[in-house]
Amino acid sequence: MAERTRLPAVQQPDWGTELAAVVAELRRRPALVTPSSCYSLQRELAAVAAGAALVIQAGDCAERFTDTMAGKLDLLTALADQVEVATGVPVVRVGRFAGQYAKPRSESTETTAHGPLPVYRGDAVNSPDEHPEARVADARRLLAAYDHSATALDALFLRDLLPPFGGTDHPHSVTYASHEALLLDYEHALVREDDLQGGDYGSSGHLLWIGERTRAVDGAHIAFAEAITNPVGVKIGPDATAADVATLVTRLAHGHAPGRLSLITRLGPRLGQTLPRLLDELGPLARDVLWLCDPLHGNNLRNRHGQKTRVVDDVVAEVAACCAVLRDHGLALAGLHLETTPEPVVECVGSAPDLDRRLDHYTTVCDARLNAEQAAVVVATALDAGWGATVAGDSETGSTA
Ligand code: PEP
Ligand code: CO
Question: Which atom of ligand 1 is nearest to the CA of 100?
């Protein structure tokens, strides 16, 4: 299965002739994470499915190879602790880090001060520098992505975790690594045998998710997710059909343990129209997945100065609405998926009038991230909306109950 399928794969760079040698080299390298650590996360997510734990998945939109890890881990830990203190429920900590080096893009070119250029696609592909050579996809960057993931995982002691429910010593101190499984040449080259559960697993991170732009049910990304044993996620945007989501649940969740599939909604202002309909049409299938809310990717805006940003008021409105709609359907919000940074930047703004202001503490190379204070506000909103106060399956209301 480690072979790439012939199914259509969108958002893949034009790598050039060096790719074959790079893939051969990646195949020879050791797994970045062990099957037992992926299984450990799977067991924690099964506890979430049972209503006994919650999830925080957070980190950069696009990590840089030059990033250091300590601040990212501290922020994820602070957010998880905030939830645990408020709810008394253990929180599974999943970093959007130690491998989040590739970005799907809506446009293939962008206008810069130096004229039109191919877009930046993440450090695993090209450089954000604004000159033409910097934007050429370079397959050798996949080897650098591997090296930087390895260094980051080592810094976090994440490469071979002990199962947290196996002993009594560290109940919720474990952190896992996740990223978008976008670059299929890289992901397939790192598929290894799962000698614990049988079959194959993706050894590039503990949890791998498929993005909104690559989740076609007849595409190569979903086939990849189907073929690995890791916990997986799929982003769900406002144009997702109930038929497609039902197919995703059947193919990615059924035949696996509870908690294997997280559906990460990113619906923005259309949540109120789309999520109730989706849940109604899914019926009992909606109970076979974890529902995570990404309240950021449906709320992308540009301010008057052309900077990409998000309004925290919009973000908290989506979180509250998501909690309420799930509850109305007898379901519980399992977790939050956030783009965050420990850096003292202001990339997201508080409310709509702030869109007039030019942002000068702004360093993201892709989407606007919540700083620590803004992230804490978003988490507090979810808690105020009842996140963690109900257990999945408790409610007898709604069409799926
Ligand atoms: C992302 O998570 O950075 C992303 C691109 O999200 P989506 O696939 O939901 O647009
Ligand atoms: Co993003």
Answer: 3
